[in-house]
From TrEMBL:
Cited InterPro entries: DNA_primase_Znf_CHC2, Phage_T7_Gp4_N
Classification of source organism: Bacteria, Pseudomonadati, Pseudomonadota, Gammaproteobacteria, Orbales
GO MF terms, alphabetically ordered: DNA binding; helicase activity; zinc ion binding
Identification of the protein by name: DNA primase/helicase Gp4 N-terminal Bacteriophage T7-like domain-containing protein
Domain DNA primase/helicase Gp4 N-terminal Bacteriophage T7-like: 28-64
Organism (species): Gilliamella apicola
GO biological process: DNA replication
Amino acid sequence: MKINEVTAEAVGKWQSIFSSLGIDVGNGKHCPCPVCGGKDRFRFDNKNGRGTYICNQCGSGDGLELIKNYYHCDAKEASNKVAEYLNLTVQVSHLTRCELAQRLNRSGYHCL
Ligand SMILES: [Zn+2]
């Protein structure tokens, strides 16, 4: 999966992606930055559902950028974390057991 496909899939889901990764972004009000700390320098503004944020200390960016800064990893690794979360969500919420088994079989896994 390409990075821009992952971020396209992630639109509107960043709040739950962050909480699944243990990143506390608050509720849109000023709060400590999950990356650099402080008291009220960070704000999660989530423009267009893209997970955007503003920090007075370490700057602003989108959801992927925050994961990169939080884990000190590159964009590829950050997008892998997001893709992992999104796949899990898809399996649980949209696929029936049967569809899931078929999908697993197609990619070479044994039926559970
Ligand atoms: Zn910061």
